[in-house]
Amino acid sequence: MKLSATNSVSQATRTNDIPHYQANLGDLPLETPIDMPEQCFGEQPEQLRQVVTSPSCMTERRLLLILSSLAIGLFSASELARPLRQDGTSLLDGGLFLLYLSLFCWVAFGFLNALAGFCVLAGQRMMPLAPATELRLPRKRTAVLIPIYNEHVDQIFARVAKMTAMVDDIGAAKLFDFFVLSDSGAKMLPREYAAYRRVKSQTPVPLYYRRRSQNIARKPGNIAEWLRRFGGGYDYMIVLDADSLMSGSAMVRLASAMDRAPGVGLIQSIPTVINARTLFARWQQFCAAAYGPVAAAGMTWWSGSEATFWGHNAIIRVRAFAESCGLPKLSGREPFGGHVMSHDIVEAALLRRRGWAVHMVTLPEGSHEEFPPTLSDFSIRDRRWCHGNLQHIRLLGVAGLHWVSRLQMLMGASSYIASPLWLMLMVVTLLQPLLFAAAPAGPTDSPWLLGLTVALLLGPKLLSFLWLALDRERQKDLGGLRRIVRTMAVEIPLSVLVAPITMLAQTVAVVSIMCGQACGWSPQRRTADGIPLGNALNDYRWHIATALPFLAGALMGTGAMAWLFPVVVSLLLAPFIVSVTSRCDIGEWLARRGIFRTAEDDGFAPTVKARSQHNTRPLTSGPLIGETHALA
């Protein structure tokens, strides 16, 4: 059933369809330019409006989270470093204390964020359901931007066709224009253009295609070029990734929310993972479905109007973005100079700097993305993120940023710096008999500290399980509580095995970036089915080499090596783990037995569709889109 618009929407003048192939133009509307000035990071701009972070206790929430993390970190680090004081203190002792403190604070923050999220979700279960918010069409026009870079053409335009069909089904064809913004190489152009023309001929929703001959500044340059040419014709833009999929009702909800909240510059939705086929991707799909809501609820609990941006599946106020987010080219050479890599977090900070609120919400359905199919593909993407997040260190001093924006950038960098710190701790443990007369305690020498460490690491998963036990609807999406237990019995050991592999990959990335090696920008592989063991052995030979000295130390019984033995096993088995988890047949075999199977296995699950049709939950885990004051 189509929705009817509440008011008329003016139609922008558009050019006629181009009947012949034009390599540099494609089909585009008439240009409606908008100014997008380059921002100055050294001077604070004039704040156009005053953001009121709601609720009023947001400062107390943030301080509670930060101070509690620091308290747990200090307590744990003091206990670990206690034996170091037996023969006096030295600079080495102080360095070790800071190492322990950094690692425990990081782990504690993740646990406390999940605890806050669990309390939020559990509290919602105890309250009566709010009245359903009626789904109404927005009053203003939205452009849906799909930047692509040498992607699988058929998959991209199949998603475009599906999204335009859903927008038309809901009666919003005149309110949303779709743009495929290509940065692909010239040899991709004929196939992309042919697929575009095919989809365009089948949809009543306006669909356009533009290819840049030079992909200057990567994705942010792609978006900025569109803004400067066409941004004046639209009030909002929904930015998607090449692997994103968003329903028509989700787009309508986001655009309507922007209508009701004129002070909001950006709303970031939290997407679910779909179309997983390999064991690795199915594992991540389950984690997103089972553990993601608790983590997301925690983030929205303390982020308020200073939330972050993930670069996709978000709606943005066009003029706010244009006036706030023109990214300059940083001085110096890459990796710390040049174009801003992880642009999304910076753009959210710049919006907030200009007085625009940035919110994060969980929609009841319709916001999806895909996940890299293998651990190797994930590592390639993760190295790019590592580059961008480390680059943010030099942006912490940008004038006028809100302190929470600086905290988010620091947390992003810290998430990667934690990996080399973990490796340093392993090296210290190996060498402790040579470095200290009185060897520092390892977790095996302090049972309660070992228990605390396990609780902090596994706590977010256990809290998510408790929430799933309360939410019968989510239980059905994951196959019931019994299947959830069986899956977690496989997932937790798998995560323990994969964590050291990721740790070493991130450590190598951090070291190479600090040594001046930029990561570049290569196309993302979206599908795969198996990595031959020989290839994995070659790619992960450094993991095996790193494990050998620790294995020798464990066999010799030096220091407190027993607690590192699982890490050694993981690094030694890294090629086998990567090869096995990259296979589709193993993922499907487990899914048939209810392991790593979720409602998103078929893209849009029946339960999700029903939820959309009955509109029982307008929003969860964040400010309600139906409540204007929550997004003011």
Notes on the protein architecture:
It is a single chain. The protein is of the alpha/beta class and 632 residues long. The protein has helices spanning 58-81, 91-126, 153-169, 189-200, 218-230, 248-260, 279-290, 292-303, 318-324, 343-353, 375-391, 403-435, 447-470, 472-477, 481-514, 533-539, 541-556, 565-572, 574-581, 584-592, 606-614; strands at 142-148, 176-182, 207-211, 236-239, 245-246, 264-269, 272-273, 314-317, 357-361, 367-369. The protein contains 21 helices and ten strands.
Key features of this structure:
632 residues, 10 strands, alpha/beta, 21 helices, 52% helix
**What is the end-to-end distance?**
31 Å
Number of helical segments?
21
Strands of the widest sheet, in order across it, are 3-2-1-4-8-6-9
Structural class, judged by helices and strands?
Answer: alpha/beta
The tally of strands reads 10
Average pLDDT figure: 86
- Rg, Å, rounded: 25 Å
What is the percent of helical residues? 40-55%
Overall 3D form: globular
Major sheet characteristics: 7 strands, mixed
Poorly predicted runs of 5 or more residues: 4-24, 128-132, 602-632
Share of residues in strands: 5-15%
